[in-house]
Amino acid sequence: MAEWPAGSFPDAIWPFMSIDQLSTQNAGQFQYFFYRPLYFVGLNDKLAVNYDMGPADKPTWSSDGKTITVPMKSSWQWSNGEKVTGQDVQFWLNMMKAEHDNLGYYSAPNDVVGVKYLPDNIVSTKVSDSSIEITFDQPYNQDYIVGNALQTVTPMPLAWDVTDDKGTKGKCSADTLDSPTLKADCEAVWKYMSGAGKDVKSFATNPLWKIVDGPWVLKGFNATSGAFEISKNDKFGGEHKPYLDEVDFVSYTGPDAEWKDLQAGSSQANALQIGVFPSANTPQYNKDDLQKGNPLASAGYLLEKGALLDSIGYYQVNFGSKAHGNLFKQAYFTKVLQDEMDQQGAIDGPYKGWGYPTTGIVPGSPEGNPLSPAAKAAAAKYDPAEAKQLMTQHGWDLSTTPATCKSPGTGDNQCGAGINAGDKAEFTIEYPTAHPALDTVMQAYKNAAAKAGVAITVTTKTQNTLGSELVACSPDKPAGCQWDAILYGGWVYSLLPTADSLLTTGAGSNIYGFSDPKFDAAVAKTVKSSDPQAWYDYEAYASSISLPLIWMHNNVWVWAVAKGFHDSGQDAFQGFEPEFWYYTQ
Questions:
Q1: What is the spatial distance between Cα 517 and Cα 372, in angstroms, rounded to a whole number?
Q2: Using an 8 Å Cβ cutoff, are 538 and 115 in contact?
Q3: Hey, which bits of 9-118 come out as E strands?
Q4: Which of 226, 318, 412, 561 has the most crowded CB, counting CB atoms within 10 A?
Q5: Phi, psi at residue 113, to the nearest 5°?
Q6: Which residues pair with 386 in a beta bridge?
C-alpha cells in the first residue's frame, strides 16, 4: 500500500465527461484508474501512443484512408466477467452522438472549411466482439484520429445501458449512429448515468462503478474531503498489472498540513510515500544536482521533478464579456496583456526554477512538436516597452491608470471596434485561492500592466467556484457574460497539439466567445493533413490574431518521494499510473 496526497475534488466518475466535468483531475487523476480509453497517449512524458496501456491493439487502415479497424484485445474484460468488445465502443459513440452538446470533447462540424469531428465525421460502423470498424466521411490525418480523436473514446460496459436504479434495460448501446431513435434511446440512459456520475456520496458504493476494466477499482471515497482509496482489480486483463494491493489518496486542508506530515518522515506509520513540496519549502532548482538543498533528505525523501507535459499555460479572457469583450477582441490589446506577463521572472522567482514557459499555441516543451519558424519568431516574450508603445499608438491616453480611449474608431491608430471615447482599459482577473507563489505572480502582473495604462483588479476564489463561472455567454446563460478573465488551468494536448476541442467555433471547451473562420480553416488542415506545412500555417495565423488566451508559465510539480519507493508512470493529462509503483529494499 502507498499513500499519496489527493488533488482537487473530482466531481464525476462516469467516463462520459460533460462540459462542466472535463478536467485533468477528473480524467487523468481519477477516471483512468478505472476506465481506460481505446488508446492511451503520453506515458512518462513521451509524445507517443502507448498501445500497451489500453484495451485496443494497433489499428489498420483501408487503402483509401477512410476506414480504420480497431482490434479489441481478447484479454481485456470488465470486472463483472464480460469481455471488452466493439459494442462497448459503439455504446460510447452512440452516447456522444446523442448527447454531443453535453460532452466536453465535442467539436461541432464546420461546413465552411469542410471538416467534421468525432462523431459527426463517422459514416458507418461495424462491430463485433473482437473489433470495431469505423468509416469516416473523408481521409484524415491518421495520427490525429488515433492519438487525438480515439484517445477520448472510452468503452462503456453494456451493464451501464440502464435507465433507473431498478436496472431497467436501455436501448442506447444496441443502436447505430444513424438510428432514428438514437436520441430518445440514449437520453434516458444519459440522464440516469449522468446523475449517478455526479453523486459523489455514492462513488464508492454504487454498484455501477464497481464494473471497471482498468487496473484499479474504487475502494472508498470521502465525499467531504475528497480523499479516496483504490485497490487492485484482480480481474484486470491488461499488460501492466499493479504491484501494490492498494493506494490511498490523502486529503489535506492546505500545504502546511501536508508539509508537517512529510517532515515527520517516510518511515512513520501511514507516512506519505509521495508528497508535493509547498512552494515556500521548495529548494531552488539545480539541473546539475537535483538533491542539492533537499530539506527532506534526513526525513527519508528524495526530491523528484514532475513531468514536462505537452501543455500550454494561460489565463483566459472572455470575448463575450458584457463589460470588456470588445477590448479583448483587439489583437493589439491582447498583445499588450502578453507583453506584461513575465513568465521567466515567475519561474526564476516565486517558482524557484521549477517551470517552463508557454511560447504559443503549440508547446515548445517537451521536444517533438512541429514548431515552425514563424511560431519561434512570434514566441511570447516579456516586453513592457512594447506594451506601452502599443497602447499609445492605438489612441489611449496613458496619463492616468486606467488609460482612457481618446481616439475611437477602427483605424490602425485608433482604439478599435466597439470601444468608445472615454472607455477605460480595465478588467478583473479571478484566480484560485491558497497559492502564495501565484499571488506574487499576479501582483507583479498587475503592477506591470498598470505601467502600460491597464488597470487589473485581481481577486481569488476557490477552484470549484471558478470552474462553475466558466461558461459561455449566451441568452440562456447570462452569467457567462459577466466574467472578464479567469485563471483556471491550462490545456494539455493529446498526441497532436491542435486546438480543435479548445478554440474552434462550437467546440465543447470554447467558452470564450471566440470564433474566427480562418482559424477554423487552419485547424481543419492539421486534422485532415499530415503535411508539416499545415502546422506551420496554423501556428503562423494563430500568432497573428487576438486569441482569448494569455500565455503563462507551466508549473513543474516537485515531488518528495520516499527512498526505496519507485513512482514511475505519469501521463499527458497530469494523471498517474500507480500500477507501475513498487518498493525496493
A1: 21
A2: no
A3: 40-41, 49-50, 60-61, 67-71
A4: 318
A5: -105, 5
A6: none
| C-alpha gyration radius of the chain | 24
45 burial level (CB within 10 Å; 0-12, 13-18, 19+): middle
| pLDDT single digits (tens) 399-410 | 999 999 999 999
Asked whether the beta carbons of 297 and 578 are under 8 A apart, the reply is no
Is 219 strand, coil or helix?
strand
**Which pLDDT tens digit goes with each residue over 416-466?**
999 999 999 999 999 999 888 999 999 999 999 999 999 999 999 998 899
Residues pairing with 400 in the sheet:
none
User: What's the rounded Cα separation, in Å, for the pair 390 and 335?
Assistant: 8
Whether residue 478 is preceded by a cis peptide bond, meaning omega within 30 degrees of 0, is no
Identity of residue 520: D
Closest CA relative to residue 266, chosen from 276, 258, 274, 277: 274
DSSP-derived 3-state class of residue 498: coil
CA nearest neighbour of 106 among 480, 551, 502: 502
Helix (H, G, I), strand (E, B) or coil at 397: strand
pLDDT tens, residue by residue, 197-234: 888 899 999 999 999 999 999 999 998 888 899 999 99
Residue 45 near residue 570 (C-beta atoms within 8 A): yes
Q: SS3 string of 340-396?
A: CCCHHHHHHCCCCCCEECCCCCCCCCCCCCCCCHHHHHCCCCCCHHHHHHHHHHCCE
Listed in sequence order, the residues at least 6 apart from 476 whose beta carbon sits closer than 8 Å to its beta carbon are none
Asked if residue 387 has pLDDT above 70, the reply is yes
Helix axis angle for 517-528 and 532-542, nearest 10°, is: 160
Rounded Cα–Cα distance for residues 445 and 439 (Å): 10
Residue of 164, 206, 168 lying closest to 198 (CA atoms): 206
Q: Angle at CA 235, nearest 5°, toward 230 and 241?
A: 65
Strands 2-5 and 246-250: what pairing?
A: parallel
State how far the Cα of 21 lies from the Cα of 470, in Å rounded to an integer.
11
* DSSP-assigned letter for residue 6: -
Name beta bridge partners: 486: 316, 430
Least Cα distance to 154 among 67, 66, 90 occurs for 90
**Packed helices 384-393 and 331-339: angle between N→C axes, nearest 10 degrees:** 150
**Residue among 489, 363, 499, 503 at smallest CA distance from 47:** 363
pLDDT band at 365 (very low <50, low <70, confident <90, very high): confident
**DSSP-assigned beta bridge partners for residue 485:** 317, 429
Cell of 293: 538543498
Pairing state between β 491-492 and 67-71: unpaired
Cβ(392)–Cβ(398) below 8 Å? yes
